[in-house]
Amino acid sequence: MRSWVLFIPFAALVVLSGYLGYQMGKVAPPSEGDVIARWAEKYVAWAGGDAKATDCSATPGRGEVWMIITCVPDAPQQSISYQVNRAGQLVQPGAGQSGPEA
Predict the structure, then answer these.
(1) Are 56 and 69 in contact (CB under 8 A)?
(2) Which residues are CB-neighbours of 99 under 8 A, at least 6 positions away?
């Protein structure tokens, strides 16, 4: 039997493994830092004025909520919280979109 005939299944397995690894890497969830930065940018765009990304911090959530990102400007009565899931999306639609909580 020729040696290249034995090599074909091995080569196919290597190609399949590489393809599956590439596909898995494309759908990897965002990191904590990426999610916090994205929501901090949205907060700064919404609040304007003296708002800055460093006004925001995150704490662990429970259940479906992966993180609770809280942005507290100089006036703490205008703080806003975003509850996000593992994909970095809002858990409660509309939360954080209507403005600061009183």
Answers:
(1) yes
(2) 46, 80
CA distance 61 to 47: 24
**For residue 70, what is the enclosing H or E element?**
strand 67-71
Distance, CA of 39 to chain centre: 9
CB 46 within 8 A of CB 38: no
Nearest to 90 by CA among 59, 72, 71, 66: 66
The predicted-structure confidence for 59-77, as pLDDT tens digits, reads as follows 999 999 999 999 998 876 7
Coil/strand/helix, residue 61 = coil
Give the chain's end-to-end CA distance (angstroms, integer): 79
pLDDT per residue as tens digits for the range 32-54: 999 999 999 999 998 888 889 99
